[in-house]
Every structure is written in structure tokens, then in C-alpha cells.
Amino acid sequence: EYPIPEAVSIRKHITMNVTDFLFTTAVSAGEPRMPPKLPALGTYQKGDSSLTFGKKITHLFDSSRNTPGAPHSLSLFSCNDSYLTPTAYLELDALSDDRAMTYLPVILFLGVIMIFGILGNLLVLYIYCSDSKRKPANNFIITMALFDFLACGIAIPLDIYDMRFHYTFFNHVACKAFRYSESAFTNASSFILILIAIDRYLKICKPLLPESPNRSKLMCTVATVFGFVIAAPTCLLFGIKRKQIYLRKYCGFDCTVSDEYRNTKFNKYYYALLLALFFITLFTLIGFYLRIWIAIRTRRNSVIGDRPSVIHSSVKSNDSKDSRRSFTKRKRNQSSTSDDDVFVKSDSKQMLNNHQSCTPRKSRIDRIGSSVTTMIGNVRCTRTTKIFIAVSIAFIACFLPSITVNLLQANVKSIQMTKSDVVKVILKLLARVHFVNHAINPLIYSYLNVNFRNQCAKAYKRLVSTCNEKLYRRKASISSRSSRSGSSKKLQKTDSDVKTNEVLLEHTNQSQNTETKNL
């Protein structure tokens, strides 16, 4: 049923697979000793292509794993750690080196992202945390910068380590920490973006709702808890996977989905959950920011000549004048310093309360009515909202390629079986584009926020001045030490000269006394 000699007519590499790797035990016995329960898919038939026969052999191996009485050569896919000799470890290191050279462009790409992300997010944390006039929106920026910094400092280095030691990743704890941190930081960032969109929506479209000063802090806390809780399944799902080495009886070690969960529903449900979270984030951001844009456009295009009916009540001239001055002053301050969206609800409510039961004056009514109408339509998309919209767009643009590549790799067999190194590098690079999101936010802040650029310049000047001051102090201390040593040497030299002169003088006196005695 298994005519092994006919396999000689197959191409050379298939022949090597069959004779040296698959049927060594059977051929050495002189005739095939296959168990009767094995299927007849290992038979080579004339006209079979190499790919067809390879599929048959693969199915034969899968069937022989759990078949009693199968020859040892058919059970080589079950890894045996007893073959992990020092020579085997050296071979695994060599294979890891070869794979690292293949993935070198991806490693360099991640290294650049890691450096820029760490430095940029540290700068963001320093500037926004040291701001004395901290606004509620700054809490969102600080929390996102903290997660981005941790992702660049923990997740990216471990991913580089995974690609560098592709077959020798032995540390279970590091593997689980890598996968958990990557998932937790990503989930928390996505939840924060959703809550930022909700906060912007409430500020612009629902301005009369009471606002708690701790609302942004509470939102950041909720997003953090949800992100870390949803990432908890990665501690079970991921681990060290045994990777079969070609023509070897031992396996390599890779940090990916554990063998016990690879083909289970738990694995599929978890990735379905991540995909659902991405699309929920996508459609939520689009929905809220679309509502914000519609609200801004509607109020800007409203009829400016209309007067609110409340204004036609009695108006007190002094109160209206004070209210108008207060509004003008606040508007000027808002346009110069504030980062938040403006819907002047406080001014409008104050004016409406002050204008009831007052003496009517047409000129005052016209002017105040114009001011209130301007205030009601004064909803503008300021710097903070633009920054958050840009951050949301960057998040979607960075994660969309990674999601697409992961779906293709999971469902398209031709991509899974590809042998091209170029294709592997491109897929690996696209699958890690989402790490760019952790390094791009500081660039967005610096481009859209003038105050952030100014604070960066001031921080750079302070750093340079501090370094120059320390360098000057160091040079001064070195020069003072050298001057002290030089002065001590001079003193020592002076003392030696004095002693020499004294000795010479004493010798001269002795010689004179001797001459006097002789005379």
C-alpha cells in the first residue's frame, strides 16, 4: 500500500524528505512497516506534483501523531527535549542569527520608533505635568503619553528581542509580559480616545450640562482599568511555542500563541474581540467627531441678524455694559490663551439673568442682542479638539494595516506558506506599523500646539544652560585643583631652595673659620 521505492522518481528535495526524514525506519527494514490504521495518503502516484505529494505527506504526519504503533520516524513532529544537546543549542542560535538578519530592516525600524517614542513622550510628560495651569484636557494627554512611553520602553524592546532570538525565546515570564503589555497599552489608548471624543462632544454639543472638575481624571481611570482587564486573557493565550526545525528531532522556542490554545475557540474568540474593539473604536470616533463638526457648522451658518427673544425684555444699561465688557474681556483672553472649545454658556446665562426686569433702550437692546447672538453661535474647533482629532486619525491609520495583515495571515493559506524573505519582511513590517502610534503623538502636539513648541524650546534652553553650568563648574574645579597642586609644588620648591641656601651659607662659614684658625 505504500510503495516507497517509487518515491525515488520524485525531485531531489522531495526524495530527501521521503528517504532521509519521513520513512527512514520503514525503508531500513526492507519493506514498509506502516500501521494498518494509517490512511493511504502517503502513496506516491505517477503524475503527482511535488506540492500534491507534499500535502499527502503532511497529512500522513498529522495522522501518525496519535496513531499507536507508528514508526519513530513518523513521530518527529513531536518535539523531544532530550535531543537538546549543546550542539543543538548552537544550531538554534545559528538559526536565530539567520532569521535576525532577515528581519534586520524591521528591527531597525522598531529601534528608531523606540528611541523617538521614549524621548518624545518623556518630553510631553515633562511639559504637561509641569504646567501650573493644568486644564482638564491635559489629563488625557498625560495618560496617553504615559501609555505610549511604557509601550516604547517595554513592548517594543521585547518585540525586538523576539525577532532577534526567533528560535531561542525560553523565558515564559518575559513572553507573557510582552504580549500582555502590548495588548493592555493598546486597549487603554483606544478607550481613552473614545472617552476623549465623548468629552469633546459634551463640551461643544451639550454645553449647558454641569461639568465636574474631576471628570477627565475619572475617564482616564476607567479607560485604564478596562484596557488592562480586557488584556488579561493574553496571560493564558500566549506562551512559548515549540517550533519544528527542518530535518531535526528537536524544536525551537518562539513567543506566540501557546500550542494548547492554537486551534481552540478561545483563541478565535479573543481575536474576534480585538477586531470588534477596533471597529467599535473606529465607528465611535467617526460618529462623535461627525456630530461635533455638524454642530459647529450649524451654529456658524445660523442667521446672525436674528435676535434672541429674551433680549427684547427690559434691559438695564449699567448691567448690560458690565456684562458686555466681561464678555469681551473673556473672549479676548480665550482667543489668546485657552486651549478648550468655547461655547460661552456662562456669559450668556449671566447676561440673560441680568437683563430681566430692566428699563428698555433700543440701542442697548440692539448691541446686546448682537453680542448674545454672536455668543450663541460662537462654537469653534480650537487647538485641543484639532489635536485630539489628529491623534484619533493617527491611531486608525496606524492600526488598520496591522489588523489587515493579521487577518490575511490567519485566513489566506498562500500567505502562511510563503517562502519569500521579502514577503516575510514586508508582512512583519506591516504587522508592526501600529507601534508608530506610540511615537507620533509628540509630533502632532508640536505641530498643532504653539505653546507646546514654545515650552519645548524653553526646556531645551534650560537643558543647555544646565549642561553648560555643570561643565563650567567641572572645569573650574579641575583648574582649582591644578592651581592648588601647582602652588604646593612651588612652595615645596621654595622650601628646598631655602634649605639649600642655608646649607651653602653654613658651609661657607665653616670654611672661613677654618682659614682663620690656620692663619
From TrEMBL:
Gene3D superfamilies: Rhodopsin 7-helix transmembrane proteins. It is found in: Cell membrane. The chain crosses the membrane at residues 103-128, 140-158, 178-198, 218-240, 269-290, 387-408. PROSITE patterns: G_PROTEIN_RECEP_F1_1, G_PROTEIN_RECEP_F1_2. Residues 478-489 have a biased composition (Low complexity). Belongs to the G-protein coupled receptor 1 family. This is G-protein coupled receptors family 1 profile domain-containing protein.
